[in-house]
Amino acid sequence: MKYCVHCGAEMFDEAVICVKCGRAAAPEKSAAVQQEDDTMALVIKIFLIIGCISQGWMLIPLAWCIPITVSICNALRDKRPIGTGMKICALLFVSLVSGICLLCRNEDNR
Length: 110
Fold this sequence. Notes:
Blueprint: E1 2-3, E2 10-11, H1 31-54, H2 59-78, H3 84-94, H4 96-104
Helix pairs in contact: 1-2, 1-4, 2-3, 3-4
């Protein structure tokens, strides 16, 4: 037996949808996939911080670089999905590398 990640109801191992809440049952991730996700999140955070530091001499861009960086780092830490708009903003305004990593990152079944 397994449990629904959304409501905590007990489900059969073969279940695709939770009978109690009606939401899709998330497949379990392997340790290798989880490690890859953690590594990608770390790379993204590092390049976001480097982008903020490199733009530190210009005060105006920091007004949007820091909030974008904090928002994305918090979402990565909490394993929340990040919207496409925020990913594009990171790409354009903070760091090209972190934006590309965010856009290429698979956020299915989080």
